[in-house]
């Protein structure tokens, strides 16, 4: 992950804390996961520019509706774009076709440019939709809805365990990292740095493993016999059905546009 | 009156560390609140672990709730009747939400879902923690986590409480709250702590673990 | 290492998803309920460790650590990495939705392979040899992942071939760093908690 | 005599928690051992973190070792001269063996490997911890860990020591040993602790953090 996510990552408390309730939050979480998936499917398989533009516009609208934190979202989307950019810059030069312009003697083709912009549109539309529709629920809710969507039980509980201990271990990591800093440790490009960071990670794993042993003991003490239980209530309400119908019509229309 | 928990000649050693418990005799009677003190690494936590079978004794006998306990399956019942509060609340709160965590014990004891939920709600209410049901466990403060782990243990309706440094890392208010709550509970308890004031207000008897031996502290020794 | 949505061809996505699903299913089967806390907590630890950025010259790289994940978790690396990738995609916008399968497979398969290749080496009696095997595990996993990412791109169209090659070259420093870091971590764990690395496939308790 | 560390109008607040330090003025002079007390969560640890730049102040100035310190790179030098002992030794020990851990600081200061190792050996010996060089840090007792972290800090030859609850979770003997060691050191210190007796034996001056303000405690207030 890019570096500046580190902060939001280690002090991660799920997205709920700073997030304002929105229209999207009133929808059933299962529905949100399914909707995001179908949307991604339609957008990624579309090749028409118009469809992709509508897709991106929809995602932007969803981001508005979900009251996403503008700055934070922008940083994340840009992080992803930076990652792709190198792929996209290369495409016009490696795709044969009608030459639009050339850089340092290398011809850039129109087809390549189109292909590159399609990838950019698709990736941004999907990520924005994901952040606003699924990313606005708490990680715990995401786990519940996966369970309700028949994702295997073990995987769901694994996700919930990971989420539960991310913060605990993140804090532990932060304290150890600070203690190293306090001893005048500065990251450099040398073996001392790499060895120290390797030790840090190793120690973090040892602490984590020992914690997991204590957790297993605590579970035994509470009579654990190989079963976990989830308690959540998810019932489809009227607005969910409305959303379902509208969403289905919209996605069908988008798909249809491809064949015009 | 018969002892709830009794050990005879209890013996334990760690591979590298050596003997930590050498022929320890101990009894816990109903209504007692026994303070267990001792230096760091004396073996206090190990002792509690042995009582509920999380570690296997290398010698001696453990009688609990009227029976000799030897095998893992004997201890399953002991763990249901002896509520164990761990040193670090984070180790004990492993479910995503508070309600699920508190209901985890009753569900494992075979209660139905609705029963378990209602037990969990009642227990939370009795500790003054109503309204916390849907909170996410990892977002609670230290003091809140401690109270929820206590609720989780009490929800199993134990006869005995085993508390491993319960007041650790609590600030004054949270500590006082815990103290008041524990004083009001009728359960027999064993309390490990380094906090003398806390123990003085809570315990009815003190034992100290020194050199792998349990030593009964009388009023006189405590005063010194 | 996370490919975004939109770049890969449909068949590549589908095959990736199917292979990842198979790997995850096998990993879940190997991991019984008693080891859920262990895999869950370690998976959280790896998630945290993947924030670490190390400077290389004027730029910086972040660790992937899939070699170490493989050595620590074996086949459970598949579900653990899937969980991490889901969380990254959904809450950080890193990666994509439909590429989850391909991304999981690209990162988890090398982890599992390195587990088989290096698990004996890292328990060698000489720390030097164990360190070398650790380095092979760390660098090898990243190398394989890079090759697979490049492969996924190349399979999606000839136009990506250059990008695929560039990916490979750009990751050479990452391989070196991962090798060193993984070796150090392995050496530490060997000394501090040797039972950790001897975890056999069946997850017998040490 | 000029102050080693001085703050003027130091200000800090946490996003959700609010202001923890409000225009704090503080000076530490050579030879002083300042006790820093205050309730849990008062902001004591935060204050020390600010002094060495582990957190960035939201206002005010920090002068340390004769210079105004603002940027991360200014603080790198401060951290070399101000040895910081963390609250929990486990957070500070991350190398497999004691020797490596103690040598970590000198290595960061640019010493060669052989120099660093010889410094580490000397420091351990001066604290009476020879023979611990090849022990595994993770397997030490609480008191031993504390002494090793102290050695690790002293190996950097600091001018000032910042101690965050050094006697925490130590048993009587280990605590006494630490106390004797600290009393014999010539360094200026800031010591956070809740242990009044420990502070009484060590400190030359007391300040208390109350409501985001640092209050100088005179003999009279301490006696109360
Ligand atoms: N798994 C282990 N292997 C070897 N030694 C161990 C292990 N677990 C604990 N010990 C050692 O056994 C001794 C007793 O540990 P225990 O945790 O019971 O002490 P304690 O009295 O609870 O101490 P504290 O007050 O610090 O909690 C310690 O010296 C500890 O280092
Ligand atoms: N990262 C953070 N985000 C928000 N609040 C924080 C953060 N870190 C600490 N705090 C809060 O800031 C306050 C001061 O914390 P600090 O650790 O400095 O207290 P302290 O005086 O050292 O307490 P203690 O005696 O418990 O160690 C506390 O209320 C704490 O909850
Ligand atoms: Mg203990
Ligand atoms: Mg503090």
Automatic annotation (TrEMBL), chain A:
Keywords: Cell membrane, Membrane, Transmembrane, Transmembrane helix
Gene Ontology cellular component annotations, sorted alphabetically: ATP-binding cassette (ABC) transporter complex
Places the protein is found: Cell membrane
Keyword Transmembrane: yes
UniProt topology in membrane: Multi-pass membrane protein
Chief localization: membrane
One BP annotation, GO: cobalt ion transport
Transmembrane segments: 33-62, 83-105, 125-144, 241-259
Top-rank taxon: Bacteria
Protein family according to the UniProt entry: Belongs to the CbiQ family.
Listed name of the protein: Cobalt ECF transporter T component CbiQ
Organism encoding this protein: Pontibacterium sinense
From TrEMBL, chains B, D:
GO molecular-function terms, A-Z: ATP binding; ATP hydrolysis activity; ATPase-coupled transmembrane transporter activity
Gene3D superfamilies the record matches: P-loop containing nucleotide triphosphate hydrolases
Residue ranges constituting the ABC transporter domain according to the UniProt record: 5-224
A GO cellular-component term linked to this record: ATP-binding cassette (ABC) transporter complex
SMART domains: AAA (SM00382)
Record key words, sorted: ATP-binding, Nucleotide-binding, Transport
The keyword Hydrolase is assigned to this record: no
Coiled coil: none
Family listed: Belongs to the ABC transporter superfamily.
Protein name listed in UniProt: ABC transporter ATP-binding protein
Automatic annotation (TrEMBL), chain C:
Primary site of residence: membrane
Gene3D superfamilies (alphabetical): 1.10.1760.20
One record GO biological process: transition metal ion transport
Name of the protein described by the UniProt record: Cobalt transporter CbiM
UniProt membrane topology term: Multi-pass membrane protein
Keyword check for Transport: yes
Location relative to the cell: Cell membrane
Source organism per UniProt: Pontibacterium sinense
Keyword field: Cell membrane, Membrane, Transmembrane, Transmembrane helix, Transport
Gene Ontology cellular component list: plasma membrane
InterPro entries: CbiM/NikMN (IPR002751)
Membrane listed as a keyword: yes
Membrane spanning stretches: 36-56, 68-91, 97-118, 130-156, 168-189
Record Pfam families: CbiM
